[in-house]
Amino acid sequence: MTRGLGDAWLSAAAAALLATAPATTALAQEYPSKPVVIVVPAAAGGPTDTLARNLGVAMGSALGQQMIIDNSGGAGGIIGINKAAKSRPDGYTVLLYHIGMSTAPALYRK
After folding, report:
1. Do the Cβ atoms of 95 and 81 come closer than 8 Å?
2. How many domains does the chain have?
3. How far is CA 65 from CA 20, 21, 34, 104, in A?
4. What CATH number corresponds to the domain at position 65?
């Protein structure tokens, strides 16, 4: 019985997949390994803060890690947005803002 071209491609694809499997597992790291910060550019006690706190509880139990709510209100939310934008790009800082913040680029120069 002869093998078709499709069988050869399938075998080659399976071999390539198995060859890269050890490399991908070696690169994988546990996430999160430290607390995650949720930056809320609004005052504590408001609806955005309440949403962030409820989301933090759900995310904390799902990820098995502590969630820190960082309220950085002021300047129409720009202070908190800048704080999140200038944080390290390691995936441990999340910005939660409301739709009103989408007008900031039209209102402010920076």
Report:
1. yes
2. 1
3. 30, 28, 7, 32
4. 3.40.190.150
